Amino acid sequence: MNWKRAKKNFYDGKVDILVGAYDFEAGDNGVRSDVHLDYEMPVTAYAKDAATLNGLLSQNKPGTACYLLGYALKEVLPKSVSSYESPTIDNCVRLLGSGRVDMLLDYEIDLPKAFVNQYAKQQVLEGFPLFLIFQNTERGNQLKQVFEVRLRELLGSGKLKTLFPNSKEFEAANFVPINLKEL
Q: What SS3 string covers 76-139?
């Protein structure tokens, strides 16, 4: 399901855990894990050339940006740039390629290398830690405790690193070495 629907299901109490949320997304009924799960990659803007990209991002040129449905990226756009949320990033790639939108916003890791090399790019949002948000209930607090203890055990034993696709992504998660005696 898309991120908007996942958050709605959590806020409506239909699910116990929201995975990969920002700190501020806990809402009134959520409790954020004390340990982050990962670090989001930076968000990058892409346009046909550097002049277009600079004009759009500096508010000197009006235009339209495309990004994946459910991402709250409108917040990083200048007021002169309208947004289009697409159900697939491939659709955004096609819209940018055909000139129907002026800019695409996404994580570089999710885009084909040929696309990344073809367009001008600029980081528009740094990566932030991502957390699990639990319902603020007895059950939610129990799940939070189990998660935090188990994640610290996995990190301390070195097994957590093996759960990431590669060393680069593990390092990007920004985990701080822990002392197992603190558990």
A: HCCCCEEEEEECCHHHHHHHHHCCCCCEEEEEHHHCCHHHHHHCEEEEEECCCEEEEEEECCHH
What's the start-to-end Cα distance of the chain, in Å?
Answer: 35
| pTM (predicted TM-score) | 0.68
**pLDDT one-digit tens code per residue, 7-39:** 999 999 999 999 999 888 898 889 999 988 888
Report, as an integer, the average pLDDT of 115-134: 94
Give the range among 83-87, 126-130, 146-150 with minimum mean pLDDT: 126-130
Q: Rounded distance, CA 136 to CA 170, Å?
A: 29
The predicted structure's pLDDT at residue 179: 43
According to DSSP, residue 167 is labeled H
Q: For position 180, what pLDDT does the model report? A: 40
Fill in the DSSP letter of residue 74. G
* Cα 119 from Cα 53, distance rounded (Å): 10
- The rounded distance, in Å, linking the Cα atoms of 99 and 27 is 38
Cα–Cα distance for residue pair 107/125, rounded to 1 Å: 10
Neighbours of 101 (CB within 10 A): 24
Residue 38 to residues 11, 146, 155, 172, 183: CA-CA distances in angstroms?
22, 17, 12, 8, 20
